[in-house]
Amino acid sequence: MSCGDPHETDCSEILDHLYEFLDREMPDNDCTKFEVHFEECSPCLEKYGLEQAVKKLVKRCCGSDDVPIDLRAKVMGRIELIREGHLLPEQDTTTAAAPATPQEQ
User: Fold this and answer.
1) Between residues 63 and 100, which one has the greater pLDDT?
2) Do the Cβ atoms of 6 and 39 come closer than 8 Å?
3) What is the sign, positive or negative, of the torsion defined by CA atoms of 25, 93, 64, 14?
């Protein structure tokens, strides 16, 4: 998605990292770039508002539920694989993380 207007930070970059911004998982100078972009780009600001509302709704509805330990381990393992570059976010971890058996080699 793009509004069609030129920006210092491209709309695609903003949308690709929107959840990092929402979760405050990026450096302050990057957060500033996002805030500046939202001031000049209403479509991205609208998308930000929508995602922020969804995040609040999920927290309100599910925020008190305990996460099963095995689920947490699987999610953290996938995040680590993505960070290390061994897995793309869209890849299926069941096939990407499973070692090949002797019959498959």
Assistant:
1) 63
2) no
3) positive
Hunting for tokens 């993505």 — which residue is that? 82
This prediction's pTM = 0.57
- Percent of the chain predicted with pLDDT > 70: 79
Q: Are 1 and 15 in contact (CB under 8 A)?
A: yes
For 8, the token pair is 């210092």
Residue found under tokens 């096939």: 95
Confidence of residue 68 (pLDDT cuts 50, 70, 90): confident
Question: What is the DSSP code string of 10-51?
Answer: -HHHHHHTHHHHHTT-S-HHHHHHHHHHHHH-HHHHHHHHHH
